[in-house]
Each structure stands twice: as C-alpha cells, then as structure tokens.
Design goal:
Blueprint lengths: L4 H10 L3 E7 L5 E7 L3 E3 L3 E7 L3 H8 L2 E8 L4 E12 L2 H7 L17 E15 L2 E6 L2
Antiparallel strand pairs: 1-2, 1-5, 3-4, 4-7, 5-6, 6-7, 7-8
C-alpha cells in the first residue's frame, strides 16, 4: 500500500512526457488520445493541458465532461489512472497560465489564438499499478 499517494503518483507523473486522456463520444464509447504532459499540476487532483479548441476532444468534453487521465512509466511497468472530469477553459488567464515559448508552432496567432484552449482535468479517484499489484486511492 502506498504511504504517500501524492508523492508517489506525483513523482511518476512528473517523469512522463506523454499523458493519455480518455473521453466519451456521442455513442458512449471511450476514446483515448496521447497528449503532451500537463503543463501545470496541483497535487494529483488538478491538471492543465493544452489543445486545439477545434478538436474532437473539446467537442466531446463540452458534451460530456467525464474523463480519465493515464500516465505510464514503461521502464518500470507501472502506471496510474485518474478518473474525473474536464472543463474547457478559454479565458485569457487560463491560457496565459500554461502558454510556453514555442507554442506558436501549434497556435500561430499566439496566446490569444481562438484555436488554443486549456483543458482542466479534476480527478476524483485513482488506481495505481506497480509490482504486479493494483490499488485504488481517494483524492481529497
């Protein structure tokens, strides 16, 4: 059993360059997409990711905010799945919070590009896999 989920999970997350974000489509099927790792995280509860406003994922989250976020440490064959919900943020403060130099490669008009938005994932629970065992944990 994990003694400190926030530290254990946080350390795993911080070492990953890819996150896998799951959404639900209009036919109630799960959809999973590899994304750049979150730009900002608050503990293991809140994560901020960047994406295109015009994306299929944004349309799905506007319809159904249920989501999961998965991180995998392939070297040690361990991972964590967080379940929760996603909000699509388009306000200037949220966009500025995670904007990085070089993002114009994806969003040519800069931080105010209308095709740039922020996904705020808020976790409610999680499941951790390590050493051939899984365990559920609560997120407060």
């Amino acid at each position: 059993m994990m003694r400190d989920p926030v530290s254990t999970i946080g350390n795993l997350i911080d070492k990953q360059s890819t996150a896998y974000l799951g959404s639900v489509d209009g036919e109630e099927f799960p959809n999973v997409k590899a994304m750049l790792a979150p730009r900002v995280r608050e503990g293991i509860k809140t994560f901020y990711l960047t994406t295109n406003t015009s994306s299929r994922r944004v349309a799905q989250f506007r319809e159904n905010p249920r989501a999961c976020l998965y991180f995998c440490d392939r070297r040690f064959f361990r991972g964590v799945m967080l379940k929760g919900s996603v909000e699509v943020l388009e306000d200037p403060a949220a966009k500025a919070l995670i904007w990085r130099e070089g993002d114009t490669m994806y969003y040519p008009e800069g931080v105010n590009d209308p095709d740039y938005c922020v996904l705020r994932f808020t976790a409610s629970a999680g499941r951790y896999y390590s050493n051939f065992k899984s365990e559920d944990f609560a997120i407060g």
